[in-house]
Amino acid sequence: MAMKQVANSAIKAIANSGSSSLLTRQLHASPGSKKIVGVFYKANEYFTKNPNFVGCVEGALGLRPWLESQGHQYIVTDDKEGPDCELEKHIPDLHVLISTPFHPAYVTAERIKKAKNLQLLLTAGIGSDHVDLKAAAEAGLTVAEVTGSNVVSVAEDELMRILILVRNFVPGYHQVITGDWNVAGIAYRAYDLEGKTVGTIGAGRIGKLLLQRLKPFNCNLLYHDRVKIDPELEKQTGAKFEEDLDAMLPKCDIIVINMPLTEKTRGMFDKDRIAKMKKGVLIVNNARGAIMDTQAVADACSSGHIAGYSGDVWYPQPAPKDHPWRYMPNQAMTPHISGTTIDAQLRYAAGVKDMLERYFKGEDFPEQNYIVKAGELAPQYR
Amino acid sequence: MAMKQVANSAIKAIANSGSSSLLTRQLHASPGSKKIVGVFYKANEYFTKNPNFVGCVEGALGLRPWLESQGHQYIVTDDKEGPDCELEKHIPDLHVLISTPFHPAYVTAERIKKAKNLQLLLTAGIGSDHVDLKAAAEAGLTVAEVTGSNVVSVAEDELMRILILVRNFVPGYHQVITGDWNVAGIAYRAYDLEGKTVGTIGAGRIGKLLLQRLKPFNCNLLYHDRVKIDPELEKQTGAKFEEDLDAMLPKCDIIVINMPLTEKTRGMFDKDRIAKMKKGVLIVNNARGAIMDTQAVADACSSGHIAGYSGDVWYPQPAPKDHPWRYMPNQAMTPHISGTTIDAQLRYAAGVKDMLERYFKGEDFPEQNYIVKAGELAPQYR
Fold it and tell me: Could you say which residues are annotated as the site Important for catalytic activity (chains A, B) (predicted)?
């Protein structure tokens, strides 16, 4: 702890010295008015339907009265793509950019280079892979998330998707709205979750919450990660550690992806790796779309090797109208939604406010929130 | 136990005496070939897609080789309605009728009167309300189910539906297949399950399994039933007993119906009772469609008083093309499917075989399987 304080002081000293070292930008706000830009999805007619709907452009995380009363400028937009977009106009002089994984403002090395005043990149939610983290680190920027804000939401959502796939919900719903009734057309590939083997790839906070929620379903639970989970939790959930991913894959009836998108995990599930899975496997992926090889997933759904695929993440986002996952068989996809329930919005809005307050006061953030700090990436992104 | 044996012997004696008392039919099979009729849903092209698909006409519960090798006649059909249907032809001389809630053969008083040889009505699954139980009891028939065969299936399915409604899955899926992407249109009414109040009306076997599966979601769990559940289970799940149903209703964010259809529960959730629920309530009903007033549910979904309704049960079944639940807003309905997963089919096929074996041998069934025995209805149907 003392070591960390010393290190922080040293970093501040370097940053404040205006040297041309790695850390050319200030870790904490200098006094005076800041220009803060938020990029969120637009709610339009939905905004007025729920007073707690703060995660959209119109809601602006509920921060406007507070930020403006403090003398700061607060620009909010959903217009984030192309050279003439609203975001691009503010890149040269913004101090803080608040973005969200649900409508990602892609912060490229080029944008970082242009953003001479930029100090702080805050993710309203979890997952900062829309930021070029290496470029951000090299530019001495701070990148932080509201760690923990989405974990319950995503774990719940994953369990919902597991059940939707295993129990074959979607064809039944289709029959209802098309005036049909054909129990056999659903039942021939509907199963109970009980007794099936479920493996999570990644057992961080979300993976652990999922294992706890799966426990009463009497499944055979497996997990793969770089390290073993706490023995107490292993005992509580009955989950078994699988050191070798490729050895785990053929054992699983259901595979859940619970790891961040990094250079190592990008495209990790390609044709070859999918071929190692059991024929008829069900896959749930609420992590990131780009962890999968898009076409390999679509092909395996068409061949039946993957018997069902569900998730809320795509690459890119918004998914274009011709994204193959929209039209592949046995998909139960949605737009990127799991971490932006009303409950989650209230959590990440509070988390962003807390970090802005600390930033203005020159205080550190909760340690687990940092994704890039003083030129270093958080362990899960290395 | 001794008392029960005496009673059973007495009943057998009465039944065998051929008296014209209440019990005019034999409780157990007389020697010789029996005519057994099964009414299931038809699989058509789906039958060959899964070797374990036994719950359909083509699969015939996997009983044909065994029954025919024993010299019995086994007729299987899905044609169950109207005076010229296949079932009607066999009513006069069948000994055993196997039916299923997923494609209910309605066994009316009139059919029972015509069925002079009928002794045994077996339900492949759970829920025998498609049989006129009073008429069956008066005719001295035995009605029995494969108790326990569906409980895990239905509890899992209920939890899936709770999550689908709370997290607002269906509009997201619609966006995907229609080429749309509008996170706000989903998020403004998507919530986490955590922290919500969930009440089950009925805490029998399914209700208890649901409470256990809900436990890790950190909800506020309530239950209403005629009697309290085991104190150990109450402690394990944290569920609180609500003696007064009408006092429980306004407390619940989510209500799950877990009681059988009886003369007392038919139409129980009418306009007045729905009005007692919280505005914005979510309802899951995998019990029986006729427990609800069909139009009152549709109206409350239209007004928004009910914010979501999901279930797999309808009245009648198959649901006609113009059934209002197919088209009401915020529904997440399917045909009757939850208890007829492949796993459940294998369980109830085994259960039906076991009861037929006992019937041929003149042995009693497992006590919990009886719905009507010796003129008496099982407690849950009284």
Answer: 288, 336
> Which CATH code of 3.40.50.720, 3.10.129.10, 3.40.640.10, 1.20.120.450 fits the domain covering A2-149+341-381?
3.40.50.720
pTM assigned to the model: 0.90
Q: Which CATH architecture has domain B151-333?
A: 3-Layer(aba) Sandwich (3.40)
| Residue B286 counted as an annotated binding residue | yes
- Give the angle A270-A274-A277 at the CA atoms, nearest 5°: 160
Tell if the CB–CB gap between B164 and A159 is shorter than 8 Å. Answer: no
Question: Angle between the A151-166 and A169-177 helix axes, to the nearest 10 degrees?
Answer: 70
Predicted-complex ipTM score = 0.90
In angstroms, the separation between the Cα of residue A164 and the nearest Cα of chain B is 7
Average pLDDT estimate for B310-322: 96
Give the pLDDT confidence of B175-196 residue by residue, as tens digits. Answer: 999 999 999 999 999 999 999 9
Question: Which one of B46, B176, B341 has the shortest CB-CB distance to A333?
Answer: B176
pLDDT of residue B25: 60
**Are B184 and A47 a contacting pair at CB < 8 A?**
yes
Q: Decide if B187 and A152 are in contact by the 8 Å CB cutoff.
A: no
Task: Return the bridge partners of B309, or none.
Answer: B283, B331
To the question of whether residue B320 is assigned a binding role by annotation, the answer is no
Mutate to test the interface with A, among B151, B183, B189 (most CBs of A within 10 A): B183
Domains B2-149+341-381 and B151-333 in one fold:
yes
The residue of chain B with its CA nearest to that of A319 is B181
Catalytic status, residue B317: yes
Nearest to B50 among A160, A189, A193 (CB): A189
With cut-offs at 50, 70 and 90, classify the pLDDT of residue A382: confident
Q: Does residue A191 contact residue B342 with C-beta atoms inside 8 Å?
A: yes
Domain edges within chain A: 2-149+341-381, 151-333
Q: Which of A41, A172, A176 sits opposite B183 (nearest CB)?
A: A41
Q: How confident is the model at residue B382 (pLDDT cuts 50, 70, 90)?
A: confident
Q: Is-catalytic flag, B288?
A: yes
